[in-house]
Amino acid sequence: MPAVNITLQPRPELDPSVDHEIQAIVSGALQGETCNTDLAAGPWDFDVRPGYGPGSSMGDVIPTGSPRQGELPREYREASEAELAERVRAAKAALGDRVVVLGHFYQREEVVVHADYVGDSFQLANAALEHPDAEAIVFCGVHFMAETADLLSRPEQAVILPNLAAGCSMADMADIDQVEDAWEQLAEIYGDMDAVDADGLVPVVPVTYMNSSAAIKGFVGRHGGIVCTSSNARTVLEWAFERGRRVLFFPDQHLGRNTAKAMGVPLEQMPMWNPRKPYGGSDAQTLADARVILWHGFCSVHRRFSVDQIAAARAEHPGVRVIVHPECPMEVVDAADESGSTDYIRKAIEAATEPTTFAIGTEVNLVQRLAAEHPQHTIFCLDPVVCPCSTMYRIHPGYLAWVLEGLVDGEVRNRITVPQDVAEPARLALERMLAAKPPAAPAADWENAS
Fold first, then answer.
1. pLDDT digit string (tens) for 161-201?
2. Contact 388, 108 (CB under 8 A)
3. Where do the DSSP E strands lie in 111-225?
4. Which of 117, 159, 190, 262 falls between 20 and 30 A from 281, CA-CA?
C-alpha cells in the first residue's frame, strides 16, 4: 500500500504562563478556579505581611523571624511585563559572564525565560559550579536552594535570592531547635547515639531531604547523617541502614514513607515524630521497634493531590497515564501509575513516543510548561484548581530586574550566606550523598532533587 501524506491540523499554541491563566480567571475572561484571587496581584503586596503569601502554603504557619523582603521600588512594581522583560535582558547583556541566572522548574514562566539553566534544586546548584568565574549567582527559587548554592560555590561568589520572602513552608517545618530537641529525646530512649552495637550499627542515622535549611544539613553532617533528593532517597536510605538500626527522616514525611514502604519497611515500623509532643507522640516501645522515624512535615503543593482527583482523571480520560511526585501522600502515590521527581516526570514525558494523555501531580508551573513544550500530548495538572507554590511565586520579574540592575550598578542585593560553622558539616552531609551512588545508575538518575 503506497504511503499517504496526511496533513495534521496544528493545535492552538498553549500558553505556558500560569500568571496569564490566573489573571484571566480572576478577570472573568476564562472559566476556571484558583485557590486565591490574590495570586493575580504582585507579590510585593504581601512582602510587608507575615505569612507565605497566597497559594498552596497560605494556610501554613510561618516561623517567627522568617526573612522578609523590603519594599520593591515603584518603578519595578508599576512596569509592564514587556518592560520588565526588556530590563532583565538589558541587565544580563551588560553583565555578561559575570552573572548566571538559575531558574527552578516551579518558577513562573516570566522568570524561567531569563534563566541560563532550568532544573531542580540540586541540578541548579551543580550548574552554578560550572561557572566558577561568575561574580554572582542569581537563584530564582526558594531560600534553602540559595543556601545550597552558597555551600557549593566559591566563597567570593555572591548568591542572590531575588525575593527574601521566598522561603519554603516544608523546610520551615523542621527547625534546628526542634531537631536538636528530638535528638536529645531519642538519646533518652536509645542511649549513646554514637555507640555501635554487635552488628556495628549506631542507634539512629539522621537523613534530611534536600528541601531543608543549611542548619539542618549541618546537624545531619555533625551526627553521621546524609542528605537525600527525591530521586536518590532509596539509595540514601540503604546507605543509612548499613550504618544504623533506624533512620530519623525529615522534613517530608511523605517522601520518607513512600520510599521506605517501597523498600519493604512495614508501616507500623514508621512512627510519626510530632515535634510538639513529648517523644514525638510515641511510646518507648514504638520507638524501639521503629525502622524509620518520620518527621511531621509535608509539602503543601503535593498535599493538595488526592485519590479522588486520580479517579476523576481516569473517568474523563480512559487510558490516562498518571504520574505524581513522591512528596504526595501515600494513598495518592499508590493510586498513580508512577511516581518520581520533577526530573523523572519531565523525562517520562519526553520519552513518550506516541501521543499520550498525562495527568501530573506536581506544581502547576512545571505542568503547564510541559504541556506547552509537548503539544503532541495532552498534559494537565491533577488538581483542577490553579494553586501554585506560594513561595516560588514570590519570585517575580520585577525582583529579578531589581537585583540584576543592582549588579550592573555595583550593588549586591539580597545576598544569601551560610555561616562557616554551619557550612562545613553541611557540605560533609552533601558529600556523603554524592558518594552514595546507585551501583548501576548513571549520574543523571541520582543527581536530581525535588
1. 999 999 999 999 999 999 999 999 999 999 999 999 999 99
2. yes
3. 117-119, 136-140, 158-160, 202-209
4. 262
Topology (CATH) of 302-386: Rossmann fold (3.40.50)
Nine cell digits for residue 220: 545531619
Chain centroid offset of residue 431 CA: 20
- Asked if the domains at 172-298 and 302-386 fall in one CATH topology, the answer is yes
Fold of 35-167+391-418: Rossmann fold (3.40.50)
Centre a 10 Å sphere on the Cβ of residue 386 and count the other Cβ atoms it contains: 20
At position 19, the amino acid (one-letter code) is D
First to last CA, the chain: 49
State how far the Cα of 426 lies from the Cα of 274, in Å rounded to an integer.
24
Confidence category of residue 14, pLDDT binned at 50, 70, 90: confident
pLDDT mean over 259-266: 98
> Per the annotation, where are the binding residues for iminosuccinate?
104, 121, 209-211, 230, 325-327, 342
Q: Measured over all CA atoms, what is the biggest interatomic distance in the chain, rounded to whole angstroms?
A: 79
Phi-psi region of 245 (alpha: psi -120 to 50; beta: other; left: phi over 0): alpha
- Tell me if 420 sits within 8 A of 153, measured CB to CB: no
Q: Which residues are annotated as a binding site?
A: 104, 121, 168, 209-211, 230, 299, 325-327, 342, 389
Q: How many residues does this entry show for the chain?
A: 450
Least confident piece of the model among 128-132, 148-152, 395-399, 401-405: 128-132
The helix (H) or strand (E) run that includes residue 136 is strand 136-140
**H helices of 6-50, where?**
18-27
Q: In 181-291, at which residue ranges do the beta strands (DSSP E only) sit?
A: 202-209, 226-228, 244-250, 272-273
Name which CATH class applies to 172-298.
Answer: alpha beta
The domain spans of the chain are 35-167+391-418, 172-298, 302-386
Which H/E stretch holds residue 124? Answer: helix 121-129
What does the pLDDT read at residue 5?
Answer: 34
Residue 438 pLDDT grade (very low, low, confident, very high; cuts 50, 70, 90): low
Evaluate if residue 4 carries a pLDDT over 80.
Answer: no
Contacts for 268 with CB less than 8 Å, ≥ 6 apart: 289
Q: Summarize the annotated binding site for [4Fe-4S] cluster as residue ranges.
A: 168, 299, 389
Residue 130 has pLDDT above 90, yes or no: no
Backbone angles phi, psi at 209, to 5 degrees: -70, 150
Please state, in angstroms and rounded to a whole number, the distance separating the CA atoms of residues 175 and 450.
19
pLDDT of 146 reads 96
Q: Give the per-residue pLDDT at 129.
A: 83
- Cβ proximity of 224 and 202 under 8 Å: yes
Map residue 431 onto helix, strand or coil: helix
pTM assigned to the model: 0.92
